[in-house]
Amino acid sequence: MLRSKSVDLLEVQAGRKGLSLSRAVSVPIPDHGDAQVVGAIKTALSQLGQVPERLGVCVSAQEILLRSFLMPLVPKSEWEDSIRFEARKYIPFKTEDLTWNFHVIEDRAHKQMRVTFLGLRTQTFSRIRQWLVEAGVTPAFLEAQSVSLARVMAGPSANARASLAGQFVGLVDVDLAANAAHIVVAKDQVPYFARDVNLSLDPEGPGVASPGIDPRAKVLLGELRLSLDFFSRETPGAVAGHLFLYGEEAAIGPWASWLAEQLRCSVSVGALDVLDQRGHGLSAPFACAVGLALRAREPHPVTLDLREGAAGAGRTSERLATVQGLMQQLQTLREPAFLEGVGRAARAQAVLAAIAVAALGMLGYQRIAHAKAEYLKAAQTAPDVGWGLRQKGRAELDALQQQLQQRLERLRALTEHRLIVTEKLDALTRRLPDGVWLDGLVFQRRGEAAGAPQTSLRLMGGCFQPEQRNELEVIGRLASNLKEDPAFFKGFHAGQLGEITIRETDKQTTYRTFTLTYNSESPR
Fold first, then answer.
1. How crowded is the C-beta side of 261, counted as CA atoms within 13 Å?
2. pLDDT tens profile 443-483
3. Where are the alpha helices (DSSP H) in 77-168?
4. Which of 82, 128, 446, 517 is the most buried (most CB within 10 A)?
5. Does residue 38 sit in the same domain as residue 173?
6. What's the count of helices (H) and strands (E) in the chain, helices before strands?
7. Residue 161: CATH number of its domain
């Protein structure tokens, strides 16, 4: 399990009583650098000892997109192309820039199908794979945290899982070391909604003032309300009536009853279907890793693997290989050595084959003529689309098509060079270190009407480090990290750190304010 702050490694074995834990290792990641992540993976493997023959990897990445939507029922052979087109309505990125996969539940009675779409920026996916390669790991499969967590569901008994069959369940993986939580709404092990939340935010707000309650629980309450309301709006008629918390039970155990009272639904600490060395249930911090292990036990597990060519590249390569094989066989038949070896008997057979080919050709010609007649009939009965297109000749239509094509090319050029603000803000929130906040943001776009938009982004914020007092170093590192982050700096060609000012509060505590300005380059 690759988390933001640690690498968790579990080895489980299947026995008569179910899955049992052999060994468990958790290694912290000191920093977000590639070398630190690779080092943590190597350390975890060395502490585990012998590497298992089958190793699954679960990834906790905020860049992972999970969307669930309904679309018209189409044949299975058309799923990939139809879902690629439909998913564009629900994701902020091009599918060409994603490594993506999908899970389909067909509803033939209503001629619909429910699609769970999961995607990850290809650049991020390649970075994760590089970590594993440098650490000497060849995973049997690679899946997202939401998929592993959805597989855990409610409890160790078959009766507990059966009681929740067909119901929406909320699952929350609480990582206190990273002050983060991963919220998933699932049904029958299929994730429908997933969201990462930061538990270190200011929890103050209406309706959450409760003395003696962990501030992180208050933040989680607000995020759960927001997430469940959004899920109910996006999935009419769906209600998550049960919530299960996974994490350090001693810390999050007291949260359950308070959250149940606030949310007015069942909330409990989830149990895991894996026994430890003493025969007791495994502690909940390893929920996602247990979800990976349960994949091998389930007869028909839900899989949404992250892998190269997960959607379509495999079939394309197979078709290409088939065509290349046929071309090679045809080339062999044209070789002189092959033709010289054909005897008289074979020539007689060739005559019969030629007659058969001619007959097939006549049949094909008749089919083509019939198809043409059907096409003309459809064209005559087709409704008039307007704008006088039916009365225009071929030359006029070609000229009109050329004009439209030129306009489309201009629109594509503008689209390719547009700067998506949501991408920048998403990357910015992930890069802000502890003790740094934003006071303001100014986004400007000029020159769009002329076809050469100029974009600028100005960030105003503050920094307070009460222990280290290294505000200048933290601000400088933030500026460098944003410039090196492709998701944030894409489309910008210059970034400038403005004047850093010392400010003082009413309590005579000093902090520093700063300004960061980024400008985009003109499309060529």
1. 11
2. 887 765 555 667 888 999 999 988 888 889 999 989 988 98
3. 79-87, 122-134, 145-152, 158-163
4. 128
5. yes
6. 15, 18
7. 3.30.420.380
Q: What is the CATH number of the domain that holds 450?
A: 3.30.70.60
Q: Where are the alpha helices (DSSP H) in 310-343?
A: 313-333, 336-340
Residue 436 lies in a domain: yes
The DSSP element (H or E) to which 6 belongs, if any, is strand 6-15
Task: Identify residue 268 by its one-letter amino acid code.
Answer: S
Q: Is the pLDDT of residue 523 over 50?
A: no
Say what the pLDDT of residue 114 is: 94
The pLDDT assigned to 294 comes to 79
DSSP letters for 199-223: TTS----TT---TTS-HHHHHHHHH
Measured between alpha carbons, how far is residue 118 from residues 4, 72, 169, 294, 494 in Å?
19, 19, 19, 20, 33
pLDDT at 434 over 80: yes
Residue finishing a domain among 244, 264, 297 = 297
- Whether the full predicted model's pTM is greater than 0.70, yes or no, is no
C-alpha span between 80 and 314 (Å, rounded): 12
Cβ atoms within 10 A of the Cβ of 501, count?
11
d(CA 480, CA 478): 5
Q: Which of 297, 322, 342 is the last residue of a domain?
A: 297
Helical (H) or strand (E) element with 496: strand 492-497
Mean pLDDT within 177-193: 90
Q: Are residues 428 and 292 in the same domain?
A: no
Domain count, the chain: 2
Q: Where are the alpha helices (DSSP H) in 8-78?
A: 34-48
Domain that holds residue 60: 6-297
Rounded to a whole number, what is the largest CA-CA distance in the chain?
107
Distance of CA 138 to the CA centre of its chain: 21
Q: Are the beta carbons of 177 and 5 closer than 8 angstroms? A: yes
**Neighbour tally for 218: CB within 10 Å:** 24
